[in-house]
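Question thread 4412

I'm putting together a teaching handout and wanted feedback from people who do this every day. The idea is simple: show students a protein as raw sequence, then show them the C-alpha cells that encode its fold, then repeat with a second protein so they can compare. Below is the first pair exactly as I plan to print it.
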Amino acid sequence: MSIFLDKNVMMQSKKSTYIIAEMSANHAGDINRAKEIIYAAKESGADCIKIQTYTPDTMTIDCNKSWFNIDNGTWCGENLYSLYKKAYTPWEWQGELKEEANKIGIDFLSTPFDKTSVDFLEELGVNFYKIASFELVDIPLLKYVASKGKPIILSTGMATLGEIEDAVNTIRSNGCNQIVLLKCASAYPAITDQMNLVTMRNMGEVFNVPVGLSDHSMGSVGAIAAVAMGARIIEKHFCISRQIENPDSVFSMEPDEFKNMVRDIRQVELAIGQVKYGPTEQEHSNIAFRRSIFVVDSIKKGEKFTENNIRIIRPGYGLAPKYYDKVIGCVALRDIERGEPLTLNLFGEL
C-alpha cells in the first residue's frame, strides 16, 4: 500500500522524502525492459515506479496540420500523434507491471490523461494518482480524478498562481483533500538555474499542502536543493541506459546516477535533522576546548585575584568566562599553582 494512505494528510508526518522513478517511454516498446526498469528502480532506492496511461488517440488526433507538429526543443520535427505512438505504455502491459512492482515492494503509480485512463486505473486498483503539468488546466479531468477520493500529486509546470488555485479548488471541491503540489520546469531537459525552487516552498504556504519537485534537469543538484528546502516528493525520469533511444532517454537518469541522488538525498535529510540546541553527541568531547578562567601566576592563600594572575584561556575546565569580572578582587582560600583551573571552591562567595 502506498505510504500516502498511512496519514490523514499525506506526507505531513513522513520524515523521509518520497522518491519516484518515472519510467515514461524508457521501456522503448519492450515489456521485458519495462520490468527491468522496475527492478533497477527498486535497487536504486526509489520508493515508487511511475508510468503513464494513455494512447495516441486519448492524447490527440492523427493530423499533420501545422498545429500538431513540434517545431522546437527535444522533439523538434515530431508530429504529436506519432510521438505519443512511440512513447506510450501499452495498457495490456500495465496490470503485469503493477504485479511486478507489488512483488518486489515498490509502489506503483500512473498518470491518467483522460476519463478512460482513469477508469482503467481504477480497475487496476491504483492507490493514488499523478496529474501531469500539461493537464493541470484540464478541469473536467481533475474533477473526475478527484471524485475517486484518492490522493493526488499535481505537477505545476508552466502554471500561473491562478491556474494552480483553480486546480486545487477543483480537486478539493470534488472530494479530494490529499494533495501534493510539485514544482516543475516543463522543459526537456530543464535548466537548473531556471527552477526557481523558492516557488515550491511558497506553494506549500499558499495552499497549505506538502510540496515537492518533478525534476527534468540533468544531474541531482535541483533535487537535493529541493529536499533541503522542504520537498517531500522528488520525481525523476529513470532509464536503464540513455543509449537506448526513445523520446525520454536524453533527460533520464541511469541507475548509478539515481542511486547516488538517493544517497545524497538521504544524507541531506540527516543533515536537516531536528531543532536542537546545545552540543551534539560528536561535539561533547570538544567542550573541553572552550575558554575558561585559569590561574596563570601562582597565588598564595589570602591573595586577591587580579588581571595579572588569572586569565580567560583555553581549555574549558575552569569557571565560565562570564564570572571573570566578579572573581577579580576575591580572595584565594588556599595556595593555587600556575596552570590550575579556577573553580568555586578556591575563593569565597562572588
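The second pair follows. I'd like the answer to focus on this one:
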Amino acid sequence: MAESKPSAVNPRRTGLPDLRALETFVAVCDASSMALAADRLGLSQSAVSQSIKSLEEDLGLQLMDREVRPARPTPAGRLLHEVSAQLLSQARSAMDHVRASARHELAQIRLGCVDSFAATVGPQLIRAMTGKARQFQMWSGLTPTLAEQMQGRELDMVICTDAGVQDPRVTQRLLFSESWVAVFPKGHEVPPLASLKALTTAAGPLPLIRYSQRSVIGQQIERYLRHIGVQAERTYEFDATDPLLSLVASGLGWALTTPLCLWQSRQYLDDVQVLPLPAARLGQRHFFLLSREGEWADLDDEVVRVTREVIRHHTAPAIRQRIPALPDSALSCPDEEFT
C-alpha cells in the first residue's frame, strides 16, 4: 500500500525548521542512505528517520519516496536539498566569521583593575596589548565593585585581589603575589623585630593608620593582624594609599601596605622607611585575573603572560632599586609559563 502523504499544512507547526534537521536531511540526500548518513552524523538510524519525518510534518510535504530502496528525495525534497545546502553553507560561513572576529577583530575589551594595579602595571600592560583589540578600556575601582560589574557583563575581564567570585563560568587565575610591609616615618627608630608581635613595640606611641574595611586590602590586613596577634586602636582609615602614606610621611602614624601600593604612591618614599616582615601565613595578598572561559580566544592568556613579564622585568626591579630593603620574594609571579 502506498504511504499516505502528510497533510498540506500542519497549523500547529508553521515556524522555521531547525538547522540540525536540515543538516540531517541534506546528509541523507548526499549519502543516498539513512544508515550511512546516521554514521556520518554520529546519530542512530532511528533518530535520523524521526528527524526526516518531523521535517515533513513541519512543512506539510513528503520529502522522501520510501517506496523505492534506498529512499529517494521527491521533487519537493530535491528542491529543499538545494535550498538547504546553500542555507547551511551560509550558516557555517557566518559561524566562521564570528569565530574569526572573536579571535582577531575584537571590537572592545573592557578590563577592570584595582587602583594599585591600574596605576603601576596598567600603562605597560595597555602598551603591550596595543593591536590585540580595536578598543581597549581600563577601569579602576575596588574589588567588590569590579566583581559585580563583571558578573553583570559591564566588564569583560577583571584583575583583582580576591578570587571569591562564585560563578562556574568564570575562571580565576593567579597572576602574582606581594608581601605585606610595615611603613614608618623617616627617622623613627625601629628596633630589630624579634617577632611579628613586636610591631606594636616598634611603633611606640605612633597609631596604626589603616585601610578602610570597605576595601579588600583593609579586610586582608585586619585578618593578618589578628593572625599575628597585633592589636591596635582604630584611629585613621582610608580607602586609598595616597592619604594613608601622606600621614605616615608627616609622622602621624605607621601603616601596613604592599610594594605595589608603595610604588603607586612613590612620591612619599623619601619621607618614609619600609620594613620587610618575616614570612607568615596570610602574609601576602594575591592578584587574580577573572575571565569567562572560552570567550576570548586566548586573549586572557596573553593578559596573564604580559602582566607577569611586566612584573618580573619592569615593576619588581624598579621597586627594588628604589627600596633596596625589599627581598626578591616581596613581589613574585608563579612559575607557570606560556609557550
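Top answer:
Good format. For the second protein you could add a caption like this: The chain has a mean pLDDT of 85. The CA atoms of residues 280 and 292 lie 33 Å apart.
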